[in-house]
Amino acid sequence: MAIEFERAGISSKREVEMPIYCLGEQVGTRRADILFEDCVLVKLKAISELDDSHYAQMINYLEAYKLEIGLLINFGEKSLKFKRFIKSVKSASSA
User: Fold this and answer.
1) Less Cβ around it within 10 Å: N or C end of the chain?
2) HSE-up of 87 (CA within 13 Å, CB side)?
C-alpha cells in the first residue's frame, strides 16, 4: 500500500517511531504501522473480525499521537474491511 501511495506522490513512513503524549507531555514512544503525509495514521490488522476494542485502540492512538485522522484496515476477513476515524475538535463553549 505504501508503495502505491508513494508512486502517486503521497509521502509515507513505515514503522515510524512516534512520540506519545498524555496531558500535553511526551511520555514515551511507540511505532506506528504507516504514517501518510505526517498526518494520517494507518493501523493494519490481520484478524477474523474487528470489534469495539480495536476502534477504541485507534481513537486512543490518535489522541496519544496528537493526530486527527486514522484508518484501520483489516486484511483478515473474507473481504478487506476498513474504518476511517476523524478526531473532532472540541470547541470551548462560551459562558
Assistant:
1) C
2) 17
Q: Show the domains of the chain with their CATH numbers.
A: 2-86 (3.90.320.10)
69 forms beta bridges with 40, 86
Report the amino acid identity of residue 3.
I
Cell of 95: 459562558
**pLDDT tens, position by position, 16-65:** 898 888 888 889 998 889 999 989 999 999 999 999 999 999 998 898 88
Residue 22's contacts (CB-CB under 8 Å, 6 or more residues apart) are: 64
Beta strands in 5-95 (DSSP E): 12-22, 25-36, 40-45, 69-74, 81-86
Q: How far apart are CA 75 and CA 86, in angstroms?
A: 21
